[in-house]
Amino acid sequence: MTAPSQVLKIRRPDDWHVHLRDGDMLKTVVPYTSEIYGRAIVMRTWRPPSRPLMQRSPTASVFSMRCPPGMISRR
């Protein structure tokens, strides 16, 4: 009898700290993150950071437009 395998494969790990930016960087980061990782904890990053509150668009809304349906959980 052979010993049980001691290998743990994490096929789609979680990314626990992702910053999304507007524009071209968003278009670059979101497909990469959703392809490699199973889930991501997204941190808001506003550029420029001093943008007035009324001019900010919710990151989750912008992110969800770039992800396949069912990929976003807002908890």
TrEMBL record:
GO terms for cellular component: cytosol. One of its GO terms (molecular function) is metal ion binding. The keyword Transcription regulation does not apply. One of its GO terms (biological process) is pyrimidine nucleotide biosynthetic process. The keyword Nucleotide-binding does not apply. Gene3D superfamilies: Metal-dependent hydrolases (3.20.20.140). Keywords: Hydrolase, Metal-binding, Pyrimidine biosynthesis, Zinc. SUPFAM superfamilies: Metallo-dependent hydrolases. Its EC number is 3.5.2.3. Residues 49-75 are annotated as: Disordered. Catalyzes the reversible cyclization of carbamoyl aspartate to dihydroorotate. PANTHER family: DIHYDROOROTASE. This is Dihydroorotase. It comes from Salmonella enterica I. The lineage of its organism: Bacteria, Pseudomonadati, Pseudomonadota, Gammaproteobacteria, Enterobacterales. The gene is pyrC_4.
